[in-house]
From TrEMBL:
Gene name in the database record: alc
Catalysed reaction, written as an equation: allantoate + H2O = (S)-ureidoglycolate + urea
Family note: Belongs to the allantoicase family.
Keyword Aminoacyl-tRNA synthetase belongs to the record: no
Pfam families per record: Allantoicase (PF03561)
Gene3D superfamilies linked: Galactose-binding domain-like
HAMAP family: Allantoicase
Name of this protein: Probable allantoicase
Gene Ontology MF annotations: allantoicase activity
The protein's annotated pathway: Nitrogen metabolism; (S)-allantoin degradation; (S)-ureidoglycolate from allantoate (aminidohydrolase route): step 1/1
Species of origin: Sphaerisporangium corydalis
EC numbers, comma separated: 3.5.3.4
Keyword line: Hydrolase, Purine metabolism
Length: 324
């Protein structure tokens, strides 16, 4: 996994992404492009449209032109890399693809998006069959939509749009929000262990459907404990902490604690002075815990310590943005 693909997938369906329009989806539906998880395949599985593919597949074109699909990013942001995955498409993959992006405020219709100002972020590039093609993007602008073009037709299993979330929080001015939410711009900056699943899952949108959609560590045998740190979307005062161990029936932590610190922009995390937000507190398996936090200190980073190990489905830190 490259550094780029470790960044969140801004287009993921479970993060609110949607394929809002496509030129064609005769053989396989467009929404499969942004499904979570790796594409699956079972040979000799035929439906009304032919062989069933876990991806987007267009008909064979008999006229000039090319096919395309427009994706609304679930989390707008700066795109750092794109993966065009042709997994399982061997005799029906497109030989070339390109990707464009645009930024449109509000809730535009597909027709309005067609008329938007699109910028090319991945030039027309060759593709192979049954392979994940990773493209680095060097464009610092914030985007809300991408358009995948394939030349001339064929099938793509997944489109991944990796980047940094840049949320528009103006709508929530003066209100409480989740300062640790990935969709608001928070990011995991470190953790002790991610053997089973990434700590970034713990700040993802929505509820975890199963334990793999949270953060889970290996079993510790050294007498220590596991931890993760989160840079908040904006500095603020955390008022309520939600520690969700949903789906963790036999591998939830026995206890957890929260600490905060204030680090000015550019200040290294090493040597940070942490203050207590939530003392070490007993947790229950498969439970959404909510704790009211005392104090009024402005925080930029929060550390979650779990004792001794286990998992966390979601971490929510509700509070008010505030400057020190």
């Amino acid at each position: 996994m490259s550094d780029v693909t470790r960044l969140p997938d801004l287009a993921l369906r479970s993060y609110g992404g949607s394929v809002v329009a496509a030129s064609d989806e005769s053989f396989a539906e467009r929404q499969a492009l942004i499904r979570p998880g790796a594409p699956a395949f079972q040979p000799a599985t035929f439906g009304a449209r032919g062989q069933v593919y876990d991806g987007w597949e267009t008909r064979r074109r008999r006229e000039p032109g090319h096919d395309w699909a427009i994706v609304r990013l679930g989390m707008p942001g700066v795109i750092r890399g794109v993966v065009v995955d042709t997994a399982w498409f061997t005799g029906n993959y497109p030989p070339f693809a390109s990707v464009e992006a645009c930024a449109v405020a509000g809730h535009p219709s597909p027709a309005e998006l067609q008329d938007a100002a699109w910028a090319e972020i991945v030039p027309r590039s060759p593709l192979g069959g049954d392979a994940a093609h990773e493209f680095t993007v060097a464009d610092p602008r914030r985007y809300t939509h991408v358009r995948l073009s394939i030349f001339p037709d064929g099938g793509v299993a997944r489109l991944r749009v990796h980047g940094e979330v840049v949320a528009d929080l103006a709508l929530y001015e003066g209100m409480t929000l989740d300062l640790a939410a990935l969709e608001n711009g928070a990011v995991v900056t470190g953790c002790s262990d991610e053997f089973y699943s990434s700590p970034a899952n713990a700040i993802a949108p929505g509820l975890p459907r199963h334990q793999a959609e949270g953060w889970e560590t290996a079993r510790r045998r050294d007498g220590g404990h596991d931890w993760m740190t989160v840079r908040l979307a904006v500095p603020g005062v955390v008022r309520v902490a939600e520690l969700d161990t949903s789906n963790l029936l036999y591998n939830a932590p026995g206890a957890a604690a929260l600490s905060g610190t204030f680090l000015p922009d550019g200040h290294p995390a090493e040597g940070a002075e942490w203050f207590e937000l939530l003392p070490r507190t007993r947790l229950q398996p498969d439970t959404r815990h909510a704790f009211r936090l005392p104090g009024d200190r402005v925080t930029t980073h929060v550390r979650l310590d779990i004792h001794p190990d286990g998992g966390m489905g979601r971490l929510r830190l509700l509070g008010s943005p505030r400057t020190p």
